[in-house]
Amino acid sequence: MKRFFRNPKRIFWATLALMMLGAQAAWASSPAAPQPMHIMEGYLPLPWAIFWWLVAIPFWIIGFIQIRKLLKERPEQRLLLGLSGGFIFVLSALKLPSVTGSSSHPTGTGLGTILYGPFVVTILGTIALIFQALLLAHGGISTLGANSFSMAIGGPLVAYYLVWKPLKGRVPIWLAVFLAAVIADWMTYVITSTELALAFPDPNTGYLGSFLTFAGVFAVTQIPLAIAEGILIVLVFNALQSNAPEELAELGIQGGAA
Amino acid sequence: MTAQSSPKKTRTWLWTILGVIAIILLMAWPLMTVKNSDFGGSDGVGSEVIAQIAPDYDPNWIHNVWTPPGSETESMLFGLQAAAGGILIGYAFGYFRGRKQ
Predict the structure, then answer these.
(1) Do A136 and B78 make contact, defined as CB atoms within 8 angstroms?
(2) CATH number of the CATH domain containing A190
């Protein structure tokens, strides 16, 4: 019993500490309002743009295969899958104000990650990214690989394997849902900062200094948004538990009594 | 089930309302405390950080396939995106609820 609880607790505190640290580092260095969202078209040098495309492609393929399999074997999941995708569409369209004086948007990837795992979300998130890159000049085609990796691949992967799976069944379900959603959102921007730091190391302070500068911009702005997104996903999840218990049960999540 | 569900339902509603209030507060907090900011996510500012770190970098090696002509069109398209997502969510929830009855 003891061993059961030690692990999730550790994750919770480590997460909190990491966020606090991020906040600390950033408040010190936070410059004027930046654009804390996807990486803009052209803002990665060609080699890095290609690199992240190559990294992302295998995930897209796995995601595509998994979605096809899901729809073929469990067509009744279609609606819930659509709902998860719709959720990403709504949330990634909202630019919300944050404490750093700039706006950013949530990712909405947490819900799909919890329900269908990170690979399926890869496809849902990338669809939203393509829409924004083509029609909104928000992000870009050269940076699609990198943006996809941060929002639709890395964030969901971390949230699923490091938060949701270890916590599920060991803490109240709402807490597991909340933390997974917060991490999926927040990690997106940590990864974005990493991608930018790798491409643009600071001439004086190196990769780490560059990472801290970008993280100060992206990750800090994102903290309140990530928390709000976590709460929202818990609310939606509760509504699903009382309205679509069959679908959830099929996915291995106990439904019913919300 | 019915005898039990009433207080339970009340509790669920209470938590839902608290959650919504928390979200609103999280969004209102920066709006009220941070002054002198238009909460821009404007395209120009993000590049500034990169421009500081790597002043020689030229991002103009590629351009967006298409750029909305102005902020009005842009907000329209963002609105469209949100609406599309909202329809999906509403449709699914409507179906689930209707099925329950």
Answers:
(1) yes
(2) 1.10.1760.20
- For A80, the enclosing helix (H) or strand (E) is helix A78-91
Taking a contact as any Cβ pair under 8 Å apart, which residues of chain A between 30 and 49 contact chain B? 31-37, 40-43, 45-46
Q: How far does A40 lie from chain B, in Å, by closest CA?
A: 8
- Segment holding A238, helix H or strand E: helix A206-243
Can you give the residue range of the structural domain that contains B16? 1-34
Rounded CA separation B68/A33 (Å): 22
Query: Across chain B, what does the average pLDDT equal?
Result: 84
Determine the residue among B10, B89, B91 to mutate to test chain A binding: the one whose Cβ has the most chain A Cβ atoms within 10 Å: B89
The domain tally of chain B equals 2
Q: Please name every residue paired with A96 in a beta bridge, in sequence order, or none if there are none.
A: A104
In sign, the C-alpha dihedral spanning A160, A161, A162, A166 is positive
ipTM: 0.86
Residue A176 has, within 13 A of its CA and on its CB side, a CA count of 20
Q: In the predicted model, is pLDDT for residue A78 greater than 50?
A: yes
In a domain, B41, yes or no: no
| Domain assignment present for A32 | no
Number of structural domains in chain A:
1
Q: Supply A127's token pair.
A: 């669809």
pLDDT tens for each residue of A169-191: 999 999 999 999 999 999 999 99
Contact B85 A88 (CB under 8 A): yes
pTM of the predicted structure, to 2 decimals: 0.85
For residue A130, the model assigns a pLDDT of 95
CB proximity A205 to B under 8 Å: no
Residue B89 in any domain: the answer is yes
Domain housing A243: 46-250
